[in-house]
Amino acid sequence: MTSLVSRRKHGFASGPLHNKREPHPVYFLSQRSSFWIATLSVMAFIIGNMIGQHGWYLFMASVLGNQDDSLIVYMGTVSPIEKVPDYSKWSAYGGSAELHTFRQVPQNLLIDLPQYDQYEQLRTRSASTTSSFYSVGNRGSYSTGAENSGSHPGVDIRVPIGTPVRAVANGIVEEIKTGGGYGNVVIVRHPNVPDPDRPNSLTTLYSCYAHLQSFLVSEGDVVQKGQQIAYSGDSGFVTGPHLHFQMDRESAPFHPFWPFTDEEATKAHLTTDQAVDVGLYSERLTEYTVHPMLYVQSNYPSFTQQVVVQDVQAPPVLTREERVALRIHQRLAEHVAEVPASSVVVQTVAANTQDTTVHTAPPLNVLKPAPPAAPVVRLSLAQRIAQSRQERIQERLEREKFATLQVARTPTIVQTSEVASRDTESILMEQVIVANVEVQHDESYSGRGWEKITVQLTDAQGNLIFNPRLDRDIYMHTAYGDAEFRPAILSQVDFVQGEAEVYMLPRGRRTIVIQAQPFQNVSRPMEYVKD
Protein backbone atom coordinates (compact mmCIF):
# COMPACT_ATOMS: atom_id res chain seq x y z
CA MET A 1 0.00 0.00 0.00
CA THR A 2 1.42 3.32 -1.09
CA SER A 3 1.39 6.04 1.55
CA LEU A 4 1.11 9.76 0.95
CA VAL A 5 4.33 11.69 1.45
CA SER A 6 4.29 15.38 2.36
CA ARG A 7 5.99 17.72 -0.09
CA ARG A 8 8.16 19.06 2.65
CA LYS A 9 10.00 15.75 2.74
CA HIS A 10 10.90 16.08 -0.92
CA GLY A 11 12.34 19.58 -0.44
CA PHE A 12 10.18 21.74 -2.77
CA ALA A 13 7.22 24.18 -2.50
CA SER A 14 4.23 25.03 -4.76
CA GLY A 15 2.90 28.44 -5.74
CA PRO A 16 0.52 30.12 -8.33
CA LEU A 17 1.89 30.89 -11.76
CA HIS A 18 0.00 34.27 -11.79
CA ASN A 19 0.39 36.07 -8.49
CA LYS A 20 -2.41 38.67 -9.25
CA ARG A 21 -5.61 38.69 -7.21
CA GLU A 22 -8.77 38.35 -9.27
CA PRO A 23 -11.41 41.15 -8.74
CA HIS A 24 -14.95 40.59 -7.45
CA PRO A 25 -17.60 39.68 -10.08
CA VAL A 26 -19.31 43.04 -9.48
CA TYR A 27 -16.18 44.65 -10.91
CA PHE A 28 -16.79 43.02 -14.26
CA LEU A 29 -20.47 44.10 -14.18
CA SER A 30 -19.48 47.70 -13.55
CA GLN A 31 -17.34 47.60 -16.67
CA ARG A 32 -20.24 46.60 -18.88
CA SER A 33 -22.67 49.53 -19.41
CA SER A 34 -24.82 47.39 -21.66
CA PHE A 35 -25.80 45.28 -18.65
CA TRP A 36 -27.15 48.28 -16.78
CA ILE A 37 -28.90 49.64 -19.86
CA ALA A 38 -30.67 46.32 -20.33
CA THR A 39 -31.64 46.14 -16.65
CA LEU A 40 -33.08 49.67 -16.61
CA SER A 41 -34.94 49.00 -19.86
CA VAL A 42 -36.66 45.95 -18.38
CA MET A 43 -37.65 47.89 -15.25
CA ALA A 44 -38.99 50.79 -17.33
CA PHE A 45 -41.02 48.37 -19.44
CA ILE A 46 -42.57 46.72 -16.38
CA ILE A 47 -43.40 50.04 -14.69
CA GLY A 48 -44.80 51.57 -17.88
CA ASN A 49 -46.96 48.52 -18.51
CA MET A 50 -48.41 48.70 -14.98
CA ILE A 51 -49.14 52.42 -15.28
CA GLY A 52 -50.71 51.97 -18.71
CA GLN A 53 -53.04 49.20 -17.56
CA HIS A 54 -53.91 50.33 -14.03
CA GLY A 55 -53.13 54.04 -13.93
CA TRP A 56 -50.54 56.12 -12.12
CA TYR A 57 -52.61 56.45 -8.96
CA LEU A 58 -53.00 52.67 -8.49
CA PHE A 59 -49.30 52.09 -9.25
CA MET A 60 -48.19 54.61 -6.63
CA ALA A 61 -50.69 53.20 -4.15
CA SER A 62 -49.27 49.68 -4.68
CA VAL A 63 -45.70 50.93 -4.20
CA LEU A 64 -46.15 53.52 -1.45
CA GLY A 65 -49.37 52.35 0.16
CA ASN A 66 -52.23 54.80 0.73
CA GLN A 67 -51.88 57.83 -1.51
CA ASP A 68 -52.35 61.39 -0.27
CA ASP A 69 -55.82 62.52 -1.42
CA SER A 70 -54.98 66.19 -0.97
CA LEU A 71 -54.14 66.27 -4.68
CA ILE A 72 -57.84 65.78 -5.48
CA VAL A 73 -59.32 69.29 -5.46
CA TYR A 74 -63.04 69.90 -5.18
CA MET A 75 -64.28 72.09 -8.06
CA GLY A 76 -68.05 71.83 -7.80
CA THR A 77 -70.56 69.26 -9.00
CA VAL A 78 -72.63 68.40 -12.07
CA SER A 79 -75.52 66.01 -12.69
CA PRO A 80 -74.65 62.41 -13.69
CA ILE A 81 -76.56 62.76 -16.98
CA GLU A 82 -76.18 65.79 -19.24
CA LYS A 83 -78.71 65.18 -22.04
CA VAL A 84 -81.95 63.21 -22.08
CA PRO A 85 -84.67 62.84 -24.71
CA ASP A 86 -87.74 65.03 -24.60
CA TYR A 87 -90.02 62.04 -24.12
CA SER A 88 -93.24 63.86 -24.96
CA LYS A 89 -91.88 64.87 -28.39
CA TRP A 90 -89.89 61.67 -28.97
CA SER A 91 -92.95 59.51 -28.38
CA ALA A 92 -94.77 61.44 -31.13
CA TYR A 93 -92.16 60.04 -33.54
CA GLY A 94 -92.54 56.52 -32.13
CA GLY A 95 -89.50 56.73 -29.86
CA SER A 96 -89.28 54.81 -26.60
CA ALA A 97 -86.57 54.52 -23.97
CA GLU A 98 -87.40 50.82 -23.61
CA LEU A 99 -87.10 50.02 -27.34
CA HIS A 100 -84.50 52.45 -28.69
CA THR A 101 -80.98 53.54 -27.77
CA PHE A 102 -79.54 56.96 -27.09
CA ARG A 103 -77.91 57.07 -30.54
CA GLN A 104 -81.35 56.76 -32.14
CA VAL A 105 -82.64 59.94 -30.48
CA PRO A 106 -82.69 62.93 -32.89
CA GLN A 107 -80.32 65.66 -31.79
CA ASN A 108 -83.04 68.30 -31.85
CA LEU A 109 -85.02 66.27 -29.28
CA LEU A 110 -82.24 66.18 -26.68
CA ILE A 111 -82.66 68.49 -23.70
CA ASP A 112 -80.76 69.12 -20.48
CA LEU A 113 -81.68 66.80 -17.63
CA PRO A 114 -84.42 68.66 -15.70
CA GLN A 115 -83.72 69.52 -12.11
CA TYR A 116 -84.88 67.11 -9.47
CA ASP A 117 -87.90 68.71 -7.80
CA GLN A 118 -88.15 67.21 -4.32
CA TYR A 119 -91.66 68.55 -3.70
CA GLU A 120 -92.92 67.29 -7.05
CA GLN A 121 -91.36 63.87 -6.43
CA LEU A 122 -93.15 63.68 -3.08
CA ARG A 123 -96.46 63.86 -4.95
CA THR A 124 -95.58 61.20 -7.52
CA ARG A 125 -98.09 58.38 -7.62
CA SER A 126 -96.78 56.17 -10.44
CA ALA A 127 -93.21 55.05 -11.01
CA SER A 128 -94.06 54.06 -14.60
CA THR A 129 -95.11 57.48 -15.85
CA THR A 130 -93.64 57.77 -19.34
CA SER A 131 -93.11 61.53 -19.10
CA SER A 132 -91.17 61.32 -15.83
CA PHE A 133 -87.39 61.59 -15.86
CA TYR A 134 -86.98 60.30 -12.29
CA SER A 135 -88.87 57.01 -12.07
CA VAL A 136 -87.96 56.38 -8.41
CA GLY A 137 -87.10 59.13 -5.96
CA ASN A 138 -84.61 59.04 -3.11
CA ARG A 139 -85.78 56.64 -0.39
CA GLY A 140 -88.69 55.86 -2.70
CA SER A 141 -90.74 52.76 -3.45
CA TYR A 142 -91.11 50.72 -6.61
CA SER A 143 -94.91 50.96 -6.48
CA THR A 144 -95.23 54.77 -6.55
CA GLY A 145 -91.73 56.16 -7.09
CA ALA A 146 -92.51 58.93 -4.59
CA GLU A 147 -89.70 60.22 -2.41
CA ASN A 148 -89.61 58.99 1.22
CA SER A 149 -92.18 56.28 0.45
CA GLY A 150 -89.82 53.29 0.74
CA SER A 151 -86.21 52.23 1.26
CA HIS A 152 -84.77 52.54 -2.25
CA PRO A 153 -81.34 54.22 -1.98
CA GLY A 154 -80.61 57.03 -4.42
CA VAL A 155 -82.68 57.84 -7.51
CA ASP A 156 -83.46 56.05 -10.76
CA ILE A 157 -83.08 58.25 -13.85
CA ARG A 158 -85.04 57.04 -16.86
CA VAL A 159 -82.68 57.05 -19.86
CA PRO A 160 -82.30 54.85 -22.96
CA ILE A 161 -79.44 52.37 -23.31
CA GLY A 162 -76.15 53.98 -24.29
CA THR A 163 -76.72 57.35 -22.59
CA PRO A 164 -73.36 58.90 -21.59
CA VAL A 165 -72.79 58.89 -17.83
CA ARG A 166 -70.38 61.40 -16.29
CA ALA A 167 -68.61 61.83 -12.96
CA VAL A 168 -70.43 64.30 -10.73
CA ALA A 169 -67.20 65.64 -9.16
CA ASN A 170 -63.43 65.18 -9.13
CA GLY A 171 -62.42 61.85 -7.64
CA ILE A 172 -60.79 58.44 -8.00
CA VAL A 173 -62.41 55.31 -9.43
CA GLU A 174 -62.49 53.21 -6.28
CA GLU A 175 -64.02 50.02 -7.63
CA ILE A 176 -65.73 48.49 -10.66
CA LYS A 177 -68.20 45.68 -10.06
CA THR A 178 -70.06 43.32 -12.37
CA GLY A 179 -72.92 40.95 -11.65
CA GLY A 180 -75.44 40.99 -8.84
CA GLY A 181 -78.56 43.08 -8.50
CA TYR A 182 -76.80 46.32 -9.42
CA GLY A 183 -75.31 44.82 -12.58
CA ASN A 184 -72.31 46.77 -13.85
CA VAL A 185 -71.32 49.42 -11.31
CA VAL A 186 -68.72 52.20 -11.18
CA ILE A 187 -67.88 53.56 -7.72
CA VAL A 188 -66.01 56.88 -7.54
CA ARG A 189 -64.50 58.17 -4.30
CA HIS A 190 -64.64 61.95 -3.80
CA PRO A 191 -62.24 63.12 -1.06
CA ASN A 192 -62.15 66.65 0.34
CA VAL A 193 -65.71 67.59 -0.64
CA PRO A 194 -68.15 69.72 1.42
CA ASP A 195 -70.12 67.81 4.01
CA PRO A 196 -73.86 68.25 3.26
CA ASP A 197 -74.61 68.47 6.98
CA ARG A 198 -71.70 70.86 7.72
CA PRO A 199 -70.73 72.53 4.43
CA ASN A 200 -67.89 74.47 6.07
CA SER A 201 -66.09 71.18 6.77
CA LEU A 202 -64.74 68.48 4.45
CA THR A 203 -65.63 64.81 4.12
CA THR A 204 -65.35 61.89 1.70
CA LEU A 205 -68.33 60.70 -0.34
CA TYR A 206 -68.79 57.85 -2.81
CA SER A 207 -70.87 58.24 -5.97
CA CYS A 208 -72.26 55.00 -7.41
CA TYR A 209 -73.51 54.49 -10.98
CA ALA A 210 -75.34 51.17 -11.50
CA HIS A 211 -77.04 49.09 -14.24
CA LEU A 212 -74.44 50.26 -16.77
CA GLN A 213 -73.89 48.89 -20.25
CA SER A 214 -70.11 49.43 -20.40
CA PHE A 215 -67.23 51.25 -18.70
CA LEU A 216 -64.81 53.90 -19.96
CA VAL A 217 -62.55 53.97 -16.87
CA SER A 218 -60.51 51.54 -14.79
CA GLU A 219 -59.93 51.16 -11.07
CA GLY A 220 -57.53 53.79 -9.80
CA ASP A 221 -58.21 56.31 -12.57
CA VAL A 222 -58.43 59.93 -11.48
CA VAL A 223 -61.55 61.45 -13.05
CA GLN A 224 -62.57 65.07 -13.45
CA LYS A 225 -65.95 66.66 -12.88
CA GLY A 226 -68.10 66.07 -15.97
CA GLN A 227 -65.79 63.41 -17.43
CA GLN A 228 -67.61 60.61 -19.23
CA ILE A 229 -67.04 57.36 -17.35
CA ALA A 230 -69.63 54.89 -18.68
CA TYR A 231 -72.74 54.25 -20.77
CA SER A 232 -76.10 53.52 -19.17
CA GLY A 233 -77.79 50.18 -19.70
CA ASP A 234 -80.10 47.58 -18.20
CA SER A 235 -77.71 45.15 -16.49
CA GLY A 236 -78.64 43.51 -13.20
CA PHE A 237 -82.14 43.18 -11.79
CA VAL A 238 -84.16 45.82 -13.67
CA THR A 239 -87.52 46.20 -15.37
CA GLY A 240 -86.21 48.63 -17.97
CA PRO A 241 -83.15 50.67 -18.94
CA HIS A 242 -82.23 53.41 -16.47
CA LEU A 243 -79.35 54.80 -14.42
CA HIS A 244 -79.29 54.11 -10.70
CA PHE A 245 -77.42 56.96 -9.01
CA GLN A 246 -76.67 57.19 -5.30
CA MET A 247 -74.11 58.81 -3.02
CA ASP A 248 -72.80 57.04 0.08
CA ARG A 249 -71.03 58.38 3.12
CA GLU A 250 -67.56 57.18 3.98
CA SER A 251 -68.98 55.42 7.04
CA ALA A 252 -71.12 53.07 4.92
CA PRO A 253 -70.02 49.43 5.42
CA PHE A 254 -69.96 48.79 1.66
CA HIS A 255 -70.63 50.55 -1.63
CA PRO A 256 -73.12 50.87 -3.15
CA PHE A 257 -74.97 50.67 0.15
CA TRP A 258 -78.20 48.68 0.43
CA PRO A 259 -80.30 49.07 3.60
CA PHE A 260 -81.13 45.39 4.25
CA THR A 261 -79.87 41.90 3.48
CA ASP A 262 -81.76 39.01 1.89
CA GLU A 263 -81.87 37.29 5.28
CA GLU A 264 -83.49 40.34 6.90
CA ALA A 265 -86.12 40.54 4.16
CA THR A 266 -86.83 36.81 4.42
CA LYS A 267 -87.11 37.07 8.19
CA ALA A 268 -89.74 39.79 7.69
CA HIS A 269 -91.56 37.46 5.20
CA LEU A 270 -91.03 39.95 2.38
CA THR A 271 -89.56 39.80 -1.08
CA THR A 272 -86.96 42.39 -2.04
CA ASP A 273 -89.51 44.54 -3.88
CA GLN A 274 -91.99 44.30 -1.01
CA ALA A 275 -89.30 45.22 1.52
CA VAL A 276 -88.43 48.33 -0.50
CA ASP A 277 -92.10 49.33 -0.80
CA VAL A 278 -92.73 49.09 2.95
CA GLY A 279 -89.50 50.97 3.76
CA LEU A 280 -87.65 48.17 5.54
CA TYR A 281 -84.71 49.71 7.48
CA SER A 282 -85.06 53.01 5.64
CA GLU A 283 -83.50 54.76 8.65
CA ARG A 284 -80.17 53.26 7.64
CA LEU A 285 -80.24 55.34 4.45
CA THR A 286 -80.24 58.51 6.53
CA GLU A 287 -77.14 57.32 8.37
CA TYR A 288 -75.10 56.01 5.45
CA THR A 289 -76.26 57.94 2.35
CA VAL A 290 -76.97 61.50 1.24
CA HIS A 291 -79.61 62.76 -1.18
CA PRO A 292 -77.66 62.45 -4.46
CA MET A 293 -79.55 64.88 -6.69
CA LEU A 294 -79.96 67.60 -4.08
CA TYR A 295 -76.25 67.38 -3.32
CA VAL A 296 -75.10 67.76 -6.94
CA GLN A 297 -77.72 70.46 -7.60
CA SER A 298 -76.49 72.42 -4.58
CA ASN A 299 -73.07 72.68 -6.28
CA TYR A 300 -71.33 73.88 -3.14
CA PRO A 301 -68.63 76.50 -3.87
CA SER A 302 -64.99 75.66 -3.29
CA PHE A 303 -63.38 76.83 -0.07
CA THR A 304 -61.11 79.30 -1.84
CA GLN A 305 -63.94 81.80 -2.19
CA GLN A 306 -64.10 84.79 0.14
CA VAL A 307 -67.40 85.00 1.94
CA VAL A 308 -68.79 88.22 3.37
CA VAL A 309 -71.22 87.90 6.25
CA GLN A 310 -73.87 90.54 6.71
CA ASP A 311 -76.46 90.43 9.44
CA VAL A 312 -79.77 92.14 8.88
CA GLN A 313 -82.14 93.05 11.66
CA ALA A 314 -85.50 91.37 11.64
CA PRO A 315 -88.12 93.29 9.66
CA PRO A 316 -91.18 94.65 11.42
CA VAL A 317 -94.02 92.17 11.65
CA LEU A 318 -97.03 93.33 9.66
CA THR A 319 -100.30 91.63 8.93
CA ARG A 320 -101.19 90.82 5.34
CA GLU A 321 -103.81 93.57 5.29
CA GLU A 322 -101.24 96.13 6.47
CA ARG A 323 -98.69 95.02 3.87
CA VAL A 324 -101.18 95.15 1.00
CA ALA A 325 -102.50 98.56 2.03
CA LEU A 326 -98.99 99.94 2.43
CA ARG A 327 -97.79 98.64 -0.94
CA ILE A 328 -100.83 99.89 -2.82
CA HIS A 329 -100.33 103.30 -1.23
CA GLN A 330 -96.65 103.27 -2.25
CA ARG A 331 -97.46 102.29 -5.82
CA LEU A 332 -100.05 105.05 -6.13
CA ALA A 333 -97.58 107.55 -4.70
CA GLU A 334 -95.01 106.44 -7.29
CA HIS A 335 -97.54 107.08 -10.05
CA VAL A 336 -98.04 110.58 -8.69
CA ALA A 337 -94.31 111.31 -8.95
CA GLU A 338 -93.58 109.46 -12.20
CA VAL A 339 -96.65 109.53 -14.43
CA PRO A 340 -96.04 112.17 -17.12
CA ALA A 341 -98.57 113.02 -19.76
CA SER A 342 -97.95 114.58 -23.16
CA SER A 343 -100.34 117.46 -23.82
CA VAL A 344 -102.54 116.47 -20.90
CA VAL A 345 -105.62 118.53 -20.24
CA VAL A 346 -105.94 119.05 -16.49
CA GLN A 347 -109.36 120.05 -15.25
CA THR A 348 -109.63 121.90 -11.97
CA VAL A 349 -112.90 120.95 -10.40
CA ALA A 350 -114.91 122.63 -7.74
CA ALA A 351 -115.27 121.02 -4.34
CA ASN A 352 -118.48 119.27 -3.44
CA THR A 353 -119.76 117.70 -0.31
CA GLN A 354 -120.28 114.31 -1.95
CA ASP A 355 -117.32 112.90 -3.89
CA THR A 356 -117.30 109.95 -6.24
CA THR A 357 -114.29 107.98 -7.53
CA VAL A 358 -114.27 107.27 -11.26
CA HIS A 359 -111.64 105.50 -13.37
CA THR A 360 -110.46 107.02 -16.60
CA ALA A 361 -107.94 105.69 -19.07
CA PRO A 362 -104.53 107.39 -19.25
CA PRO A 363 -103.11 109.84 -19.90
CA LEU A 364 -104.58 111.65 -16.90
CA ASN A 365 -102.52 113.36 -14.23
CA VAL A 366 -103.35 112.77 -10.59
CA LEU A 367 -103.60 116.03 -8.71
CA LYS A 368 -102.84 114.55 -5.28
CA PRO A 369 -101.99 111.18 -3.77
CA ALA A 370 -104.65 108.88 -2.44
CA PRO A 371 -105.59 109.32 1.21
CA PRO A 372 -103.76 107.15 3.72
CA ALA A 373 -105.10 103.70 4.45
CA ALA A 374 -107.68 103.32 7.15
CA PRO A 375 -106.67 101.68 10.44
CA VAL A 376 -106.52 97.92 10.16
CA VAL A 377 -108.95 95.90 12.22
CA ARG A 378 -109.19 92.17 12.78
CA LEU A 379 -111.51 90.64 10.21
CA SER A 380 -113.30 87.33 10.05
CA LEU A 381 -112.32 84.67 7.51
CA ALA A 382 -115.16 85.61 5.16
CA GLN A 383 -114.26 89.30 5.41
CA ARG A 384 -110.59 88.55 4.69
CA ILE A 385 -111.54 86.51 1.60
CA ALA A 386 -113.74 89.34 0.34
CA GLN A 387 -111.02 91.88 1.02
CA SER A 388 -108.43 89.72 -0.74
CA ARG A 389 -110.71 89.55 -3.78
CA GLN A 390 -111.05 93.33 -3.74
CA GLU A 391 -107.25 93.67 -3.55
CA ARG A 392 -106.81 91.50 -6.63
CA ILE A 393 -109.34 93.61 -8.51
CA GLN A 394 -107.34 96.68 -7.53
CA GLU A 395 -104.17 94.94 -8.73
CA ARG A 396 -105.71 94.22 -12.14
CA LEU A 397 -106.70 97.85 -12.42
CA GLU A 398 -103.11 98.88 -11.75
CA ARG A 399 -101.83 96.50 -14.43
CA GLU A 400 -104.14 98.15 -16.93
CA LYS A 401 -102.53 101.48 -16.02
CA PHE A 402 -105.68 103.22 -14.84
CA ALA A 403 -105.34 106.44 -12.91
CA THR A 404 -107.67 107.50 -10.11
CA LEU A 405 -109.26 110.95 -10.08
CA GLN A 406 -111.49 112.38 -7.36
CA VAL A 407 -114.32 114.42 -8.95
CA ALA A 408 -117.57 115.79 -7.69
CA ARG A 409 -120.82 114.06 -8.52
CA THR A 410 -121.85 117.13 -10.52
CA PRO A 411 -118.46 118.68 -11.30
CA THR A 412 -118.19 122.31 -12.18
CA ILE A 413 -115.19 123.15 -14.36
CA VAL A 414 -113.53 126.31 -13.11
CA GLN A 415 -110.43 126.42 -15.33
CA THR A 416 -108.89 124.38 -18.14
CA SER A 417 -105.13 124.47 -18.72
CA GLU A 418 -102.66 122.57 -20.91
CA VAL A 419 -99.56 121.07 -19.26
CA ALA A 420 -96.42 120.11 -21.17
CA SER A 421 -94.45 117.14 -19.89
CA ARG A 422 -92.02 114.40 -20.87
CA ASP A 423 -92.64 111.45 -23.17
CA THR A 424 -95.15 108.89 -21.92
CA GLU A 425 -93.31 105.89 -23.38
CA SER A 426 -92.21 104.62 -19.96
CA ILE A 427 -95.81 104.60 -18.70
CA LEU A 428 -97.44 103.18 -21.79
CA MET A 429 -94.73 100.52 -22.15
CA GLU A 430 -96.20 97.08 -22.77
CA GLN A 431 -95.97 94.66 -19.88
CA VAL A 432 -93.60 91.70 -20.25
CA ILE A 433 -94.61 88.20 -19.18
CA VAL A 434 -92.42 86.76 -16.44
CA ALA A 435 -90.49 83.69 -17.63
CA ASN A 436 -88.17 83.02 -14.68
CA VAL A 437 -87.41 84.12 -11.15
CA GLU A 438 -83.87 84.76 -9.89
CA VAL A 439 -83.02 84.71 -6.18
CA GLN A 440 -79.98 86.83 -5.26
CA HIS A 441 -78.10 86.67 -1.94
CA ASP A 442 -74.58 86.90 -0.50
CA GLU A 443 -74.08 83.08 -0.48
CA SER A 444 -73.66 82.80 3.31
CA TYR A 445 -75.46 83.21 6.61
CA SER A 446 -74.37 83.37 10.23
CA GLY A 447 -77.48 81.91 11.84
CA ARG A 448 -77.83 84.88 14.23
CA GLY A 449 -80.67 86.71 12.55
CA TRP A 450 -82.69 87.36 9.44
CA GLU A 451 -80.95 87.40 6.06
CA LYS A 452 -82.12 89.70 3.28
CA ILE A 453 -82.53 88.19 -0.18
CA THR A 454 -83.71 89.76 -3.41
CA VAL A 455 -86.21 88.13 -5.77
CA GLN A 456 -85.99 89.33 -9.38
CA LEU A 457 -88.45 88.78 -12.23
CA THR A 458 -86.72 88.03 -15.55
CA ASP A 459 -87.71 87.32 -19.12
CA ALA A 460 -86.75 84.31 -21.23
CA GLN A 461 -83.30 85.85 -21.92
CA GLY A 462 -82.58 86.39 -18.22
CA ASN A 463 -83.03 90.18 -18.33
CA LEU A 464 -84.65 92.01 -15.42
CA ILE A 465 -88.23 93.08 -16.19
CA PHE A 466 -89.09 96.59 -15.03
CA ASN A 467 -92.74 96.36 -16.06
CA PRO A 468 -93.62 92.72 -15.33
CA ARG A 469 -96.82 90.84 -15.82
CA LEU A 470 -97.16 88.23 -13.07
CA ASP A 471 -100.39 86.25 -13.29
CA ARG A 472 -99.78 83.97 -10.31
CA ASP A 473 -98.38 84.13 -6.82
CA ILE A 474 -94.82 83.08 -5.98
CA TYR A 475 -94.26 80.75 -3.02
CA MET A 476 -90.88 80.91 -1.29
CA HIS A 477 -89.47 77.69 0.12
CA THR A 478 -86.21 75.76 0.34
CA ALA A 479 -85.14 73.09 -2.13
CA TYR A 480 -82.44 72.08 0.35
CA GLY A 481 -82.16 72.93 4.01
CA ASP A 482 -84.78 74.56 6.23
CA ALA A 483 -85.70 78.23 6.64
CA GLU A 484 -88.59 80.63 7.30
CA PHE A 485 -89.49 83.41 4.84
CA ARG A 486 -91.22 86.78 5.33
CA PRO A 487 -93.26 87.20 3.29
CA ALA A 488 -93.63 83.58 2.17
CA ILE A 489 -96.00 84.46 -0.70
CA LEU A 490 -95.26 87.19 -3.26
CA SER A 491 -97.71 88.78 -5.68
CA GLN A 492 -97.24 91.46 -8.30
CA VAL A 493 -97.84 94.26 -5.81
CA ASP A 494 -94.75 93.13 -3.87
CA PHE A 495 -92.40 93.96 -6.75
CA VAL A 496 -90.97 97.39 -7.47
CA GLN A 497 -89.14 97.72 -10.78
CA GLY A 498 -89.12 93.92 -11.04
CA GLU A 499 -87.53 93.30 -7.61
CA ALA A 500 -88.86 92.33 -4.19
CA GLU A 501 -87.09 92.01 -0.86
CA VAL A 502 -87.66 88.91 1.25
CA TYR A 503 -86.26 88.12 4.69
CA MET A 504 -85.14 84.60 5.51
CA LEU A 505 -84.50 83.04 8.94
CA PRO A 506 -82.38 79.83 8.64
CA ARG A 507 -83.33 76.84 10.78
CA GLY A 508 -80.17 74.97 11.72
CA ARG A 509 -76.80 75.09 10.02
CA ARG A 510 -77.40 73.13 6.85
CA THR A 511 -76.69 74.70 3.49
CA ILE A 512 -79.80 76.36 2.07
CA VAL A 513 -80.91 76.35 -1.56
CA ILE A 514 -83.93 78.57 -2.25
CA GLN A 515 -86.62 77.94 -4.84
CA ALA A 516 -89.48 80.22 -5.84
CA GLN A 517 -92.40 78.03 -6.87
CA PRO A 518 -93.96 77.51 -9.38
CA PHE A 519 -90.73 78.39 -11.21
CA GLN A 520 -88.05 75.69 -11.33
CA ASN A 521 -84.93 77.85 -10.93
CA VAL A 522 -83.00 77.46 -7.69
CA SER A 523 -80.62 79.88 -6.06
CA ARG A 524 -76.93 79.46 -5.39
CA PRO A 525 -76.22 77.64 -2.12
CA MET A 526 -76.11 79.66 1.10
CA GLU A 527 -73.54 78.23 3.51
CA TYR A 528 -73.38 78.61 7.25
CA VAL A 529 -70.30 80.63 8.25
CA LYS A 530 -69.31 80.86 11.89
CA ASP A 531 -68.33 84.34 13.05
Summarize the topology.
Elements: H1 25-30, H2 33-54, H3 56-64, E1 83-85, H4 87-92, E2 110-112, H5 118-122, E3 134-136, E4 155-157, E5 164-166, E6 171-177, E7 184-194, E8 202-215, E9 222-223, E10 228-232, E11 243-249, H6 262-267, H7 272-278, H8 283-288, E12 289-290, H9 292-298, H10 320-338, E13 344-349, E14 355-360, H11 381-399, E15 403-408, E16 413-419, H12 425-428, E17 432-433, E18 436-440, E19 444-445, E20 451-458, E21 468-469, E22 474-480, E23 483-486, E24 489-490, E25 499-506, E26 513-517, E27 527-528
Name the features:
27 strands, ten-stranded antiparallel sheet, Immunoglobulin-like, single chain, alpha+beta, Glucose Permease (Domain IIA), 12 helices
Describe this structure in words.
This protein has helices at residues 25-30, 33-54, 56-64, 87-92, 118-122, 262-267, 272-278, 283-288, 292-298, 320-338, 381-399, 425-428; strands at residues 83-85, 110-112, 134-136, 155-157, 164-166, 171-177, 184-194, 202-215, 222-223, 228-232, 243-249, 289-290, 344-349, 355-360, 403-408, 413-419, 432-433, 436-440, 444-445, 451-458, 468-469, 474-480, 483-486, 489-490, 499-506, 513-517, 527-528. By secondary structure, it is an alpha+beta fold. It has three domains: 83-298, Glucose Permease (Domain IIA) (Distorted Sandwich); 321-370 and 393-428, no CATH class; 432-528, Immunoglobulin-like (Sandwich). A hairpin with a 6-residue loop joins strand 6 (171-177) and strand 7. The chain is elongated and about 145 Å long. The N and C termini lie far apart (109 Å). Mean pLDDT is 78; it is low at 305-309, 341-369, 401-414 and 417-428.
